[in-house]
Write a structure and sequence with these properties.
The structure holds two protein chains of two kinds. Chain A is mainly alpha-helical. Chain A has a domain of 221 residues: Serine Threonine Protein Phosphatase 5, Tetratricopeptide repeat, CATH 1.25.40. Chain B has a 22-stranded antiparallel β-barrel. In chain B, strands 10-15-16-13-14 form a five-stranded mixed sheet. Chain B is globular, with a radius of gyration of 31 Å. The chains are: A mainly alpha, B mainly beta. Chains A and B meet through helix 1, strand 1, helix 2, helix 3 and helix 6 of A and strand 27, strand 28, strand 29, strand 30 and strand 34 of B. Strand 1 of chain A pairs antiparallel with strand 34 of chain B.
Amino acid sequence: MITKYLNKIYFLLGFILIFSSCTNDLNVIPKDDDEFLSEDFYSNPGAYEQALAGVYGNLSLTGNDPSSSNISGIDAGTSQYGRVLWYLQDLSADEALWSYENDPGTKEIQRNIWTPANPVFRGMYGRAMFSVALANDFLRQSTDDKLAARGHTSAVSAEIVAYRAEARLLRALSYYHLMDLFGKAAFVTEADPVGTYQAPEYNRAQLFDFIESELLAIEGDLKPARSNQYGRADKGVAWMILAKIYLNAEVYIGTNRYADCITYSNKIINGGYNLASNYALNFMADNDFNEAGTNEIIFPLVSDGVVTQNYGPTTVIINGEVGSIEANGSDLGVGGWGGALRVRKQFAEKFLDQGNDDRNTLITDGRDINIVDVSDRDSGYIITKYSNKTSTGAAGSDPTFVDTDFPLFRLADVYLMYAEAFLRGGGGSESEALGYVNDVRQRAHASAISSNQLTLSFLIDERSRELHWEAHRRQDLIRFGLYSGGNYNWAWKGNGANGIAIDKHMEVYPLPSESIAANPNLTQNPGY
Amino acid sequence: MKNFKLFLLTVIVFLPLSLFAQQTITGKVTEKATGSELPGVGIIIKGTVKGTSTDFDGNYSLENLNQGDVLVFSYIGFTTLEVTVGANATINVALNQDTETLDEIVLIGYGTTTIKDATGSVAAITEKDFNQGNIVSPANLITGRVAGVSIVSDGAPGGGSAIRIRGGSSLGASNDPLIVIDGMPISNTSADGSRGILASINPNDIESFSILKDASSTAIYGSRASNGVIIISTKKGKGTFRAEYNVKAGLSTLASKVDVFTADEYRALIAEIRPDDVSMLGNANTDWQNEIYQEKVSIDHSLSLSGQLFNSMPTRFSFGYTDQPGLRKTSSFERISSKLSLNPTFLDDHLKVNINASLNSEANRFAEGVEGSAIYMDPTQPVYDANSPFGGFFEYHTNGVANNANRNPLARLLQKVDKSVINRFYGNVKLDYKLHFFPDVRAVLNIGYDKSKGEGSEDRPTTSINGYSPDGGTTFLGTRRDYTSELTNSLLDGYFVYNKELADVNIEVTAGYSYQKFKKEGFNSFNKVNPQDKAPDVATDPDIVLIGFFGRTNLSFMDKYLVTLSYRRDGTSRFSKDNRWGNFPAAALAWKISEEDFLKDSNTISNLKLRLGWGIAGQQDISASYAFLGRTILSSNISQYIFGNTPILTAIPQTRLEDLKWEETTTYNAGLDYGLFNNKVSGSLEVYLKESKDLLANVAISDGSNFSNSGFQNIGKFTSKGIEFSIGSDIINTDDLKIDVNYNVSLNQTKIDKLALNQDIRVGGIGGGTGGTAQLHSEGFAPFSYYVYKQLYDVSGAPIEGAYADLNQDGIINDIDRYLYKKPNADVLMGLQTNVNYKAFDMSFTLRASIGNYVYNNVNSSRAQYDNLQDVTALGNLPVSVLETGFYSTSNVIISDIYIENASFLKMDNVTLGYTFRGFNNKDESSSIRLWTGVENVFTITNYTGLDPEIFGDPANNNYGIDNTIYPRPRTFLLGANIKF
């Protein structure tokens, strides 16, 4: 009897054992040829360059193709780093208007009626913080200990010194944008865990200190100015970010740092950069390798119609420049989006009656300078500053995704920064300041100015003439005290066709509501 | 001839037995209605375990009987009959088909029960209750039939269905119920190029559906059961040789279209509103919506043969062929299906073997959604243009260079060949072995395998304006893409069932193990004529492995009090080691009140059973397959970064979330099953409360801490509560006239109770603008509530363009002023089915109603504004609803609540009329020919101004209740024949 029961029990136990041995199958691993366990991936010496390309790539790419995104809450194409930056620096100011206001967020941005729910904020904050996360992960994966543990040779490790410095520079660049736009950000470094870590909030002063100390710390590890591969950052880029934060230090931290701005502007100017012979070269399909690319552009956001396809600022601007009436896409090497972008009256006026100027690309025929109805794309002037054609007139490789790189930093800006820092009492010499300004003007075949014309009010307009649609405008207007308040009203400012004063609190954007919800350490900016 | 052979065999087998019998009863069991023999009828001597069953011809023989013994004849679907043995050695009985259905077998997880013994909320629909008409997709067999089950079908031929049981219980994870076919849970994803997970299955092969609605019945399926379970059982062979052939033909017609301006109205409109553009008008009169649709005949053949193979193996073989052209030109669905099932028994019936094997093929041609383009296309332009370089189709171009404008919708259809073929094999082998040394225990082993292989291609000629153009519109190189896809799903279930009947207690204990693995791999060539497209790539999805241990006890006391306890422990490969195991208990009590003395003899209340159930079921079906692992992905060739001259593939670390765990849904269910007047009227009433916690949803992650700004997290709570009531009656049941009515109604309310950090989630992507959303998940509201501006109206009641209520009263109208208004979920769903049989005539219809469901009319919101009369280089048509609003600018009005419309409806899904000739094969009474005709999608009564108030959407893709044009559901006129012999 007992054996009979034992038999049954053995039978049952055997049955159960056979089946339960399979629970190890729950440990699955990637099977796709493009996907790896990170630990396996970094055992390959070539991985570090690809990972660094990933950190850089976040400035241009949104995902595995132009219509996919590795961040959410915003349309994939719109989430491109340079594009959201451009929206927040240029669309919210006096230079540009986006015609398709049913694209979420654009209407509120360009009419200065934004709220923390605006998807463009989620895109900008998320994209910039994604850069921070990518840089942090690169730094985590490329420590000496990890390299040694994975058995990489010293040749690999030597190359990685500069890689690490560049990753830190890109992190500082993102924090610079966050400091400028939002006045604060969550502060995350490679020492923090991956997951849902709720980082502490850094205010503007803390971010300023971090950016400054970080750039100074890596200066030695970065390659000399103009010596790195095109597309990669060098000392010139670090100096540029420093010059920018010093120029805006009164806005950021209430301290005058114009002298430091002069110092770092000089470093760049002496770094071997030169203005391209022709203004337009900076904005053409071959601006990576033409004269502008080799001499003037300090740091580009790379775009390519074949291998780096994206809906970034140059793709959007060039397709958007194509007029609703003119249908001039073939002149610009693109299909065009039917009048998506136009300029506001106040920008156009900076060129009108100013004589000859190559930088004036306005198309005015048959158009009213005023835009009374934003959705009427036949009103308002348009421009053709950027082009998807090369300096030899050939069209770019794709009619939608342009080859034109976005010149995030270029020498002409430094010249004008020097002149401004000089005027603001940062030292330097007047003759140099005047010379730089006239270099910029004469390159565009505009008339030279005299020293008594060199004033701050001249410079803010000159910056617009030279640097319009290059993602500087909002920052510049704030520094000149012209952004908030009613000193300077432009069309559709504050949601009025002729412009209405806006409140001072709008000089920093609100943090996106989703980001605050996900990280309660963050606090909203006053006024929102 | 065949029958004769069977008879001989019977004689040979049974004759020797009867020779030794002392007192032997023989007889024949037939079906009362038709007189045909019933094989497999169980016959037991009451109070003993002795018995036999009828052979293939309905004959039986029992020995060693004494006078006074009571023989109990029982057969599934028939009323059990008791006959006392008298002097007569022959007892022939005729069994009545059981209209009470209380003894009907109902499939539940890893077992069966009967309606009268069911403790959970289980609805069974068998073949006789299936919807009639043009059923191509299996789910449509039960549309509107079950309280609390909503089935919304796609209008595309062979299209899938969105099935929701009790409104679903997830926010960001799948809301699809688990579908189990012959014991095998199927994957909720289908091969690329397939119309859907059930598309390849021939509805004619389905015998029954069992719908498990509450967790006390679903929890045995553990991690996948929170959205309910649908168990599908396919037909098996039995009894004498039977053949059945069904054929039907249908003519699909367009039921309605979006009301836009006619060519002449449009000319007048342009002259009035854009007089400068009159020169852009053409001379044609084109109804573009008429151009894109076709009226075509579909055909469906189905043949089945069943009987005994080698005289001992119950076998069924079926073959089906469906050819269904779609309403949208060029779209079509063709299916060839074959299925074999074998159900032999061995070792003195100790080992029952059940083998099902299906080999199906699905051939599709897809037609892209060109409705938007047809609505917008200028009606004064012609369809064809002899001078057009684009294959003779009218297109907007300047000297052959394409303009950036709307494309000819008919050319988009006719010039694109988008085809696929999916071959699918699925089947299972089930061994059910009653242990020789311990007959109270059965060991069951079920091995299942489901493999789909798809192949497809997409081609456009070089004359198509929609192909790739290397130079922005001057030359066109077409499109040439092909892809393959392969899915496998393998299953191994093993369990023991212990069954003991004691004096007043019946015990059934089930314990077992389940292993299932899903694999997917696909190849995509991308557009081969576009050198700038992605390079060809093989994509291999990570395996999904699910392992479960389960147990269940059913106790029955005095056949009055029933208890069910079940438990499952489930592991999934989706979560990390620490979180991958989940426990899913359930309990249910049932009290057969009508068995109590005080009701036992009641003539009014013939059946009354109270059920109480509780259980926890899970959900893990999210798009993230293994977010807990640290992974890195290398980019495609078009998403590289350039260092110097060299493009470098970018490596991107992937979102890593180690804390993800199951979503859990606890259900409380109370049910009352009733039968009145000898069960002439019967039905049930159910009340339930479902609470989902640890909801999985893709939400914001603290920026910078991970490799995205969002990812799946367990973020909130959700409740769903409802009442379901069903009533059915064979109002009239005479020999000549039978009228049978079934009605069900369900009330359901869903609400988000909690979202982590009070974080609202924007959902509901809309067309018109890039990346807009019109819905919000917000605490205290129904999921997918619309999130819109409150429209202001002038004194005459006309809406004021762009004027909205300043709800936060800050003087600025911006997105803080949006409010939550209505939701897509219906409050009330109803279904009514009626079958009428008069002599040889039969008639049936199904009505379905939905109340309180709202739709965002994206067709109007993104198009019905005067500014859309002109795009860049072309004119465009508008929905005539613009006349009511007078709106000009889309961006001013697209988020207005004016576009949220009440989409309550009453639909007649189908009506059929048939006539049956019986006994045409004069020797065989069970032979019959039924000829029938019917209409599918007969009418819709609604106030919704769009095409169809039923929007086919997928909440897992954030698409629910947004009408941005749909594939219209055709109205189909049918003719069919059903031949049995």
